[in-house]
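Q: Sequence in, structure out?
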Amino acid sequence: MKRESQIARHFLLLLLFFSLSYATLAQRGSGGQDIADTASLDVNIANAEAKASSPAATDADKHAVASAYLERGNVYYNAQAPRLYKFALADFRRALKYQPDLAEAREKIDQMESIYRSMNRPIPQNGAEPPEKLNETAASARRIELKTDPASALIKDVLDAGSVRDYAFTVEAAENVSVSAHSEKQVVHFNLYRVRDGALIRWALDVDKWEGEIKPAGTYVIRVGPAREKSEFTLEVKSSKSAETRKF
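A: Exactly. Output:
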């Protein structure tokens, strides 16, 4: 009975999500942390991934990564925010890569995929893209320079189907930042991360526009994609010193 009620609840939430405009539910233009705060879980995953990648890694180390992904996936799964379901699917899929016999992850993947199929909606493929590993992402990310005040950068790039593009910028003090992504061919979404404690901390997820005041100095990463099909896109980033910063 509990499983049936969960399926019914997620079905109704997805039905509501797809019946309303995306802009209504996506919380675009919000500043600060996204609606699911997973900062500590992001760090746990990064630490567990690093340990499991060691040549001396044991099955217990791999199971620890799977448990960390499962825990974060359940945050998205239980958030009652359908736009986060794709991130729950991604975490459950990654959990299975480390522990193929993890029954809870398999059951929830099957459940969510069956709901998408019953609604004749494409099943999100999140989880196949490169994992959010700080060192690998930092090495491949294209740097965005925002040295003047105000500053802006306009980037034109191409996304292959299922691929992502990473970009990094640095904030030296409190700044007002806006980010937007656009494609003529399809809706392009991005995630915004803060680099902290050796991990990419999820700051905003699955948006095509974001703006707000960023106070913690440091490096931030924008991941555009994954895309459903190959397309050109434009990424625009703007920044200006906040009123608080201008006092000094």
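Residues 16-33 have pLDDT under 50 and may be disordered.
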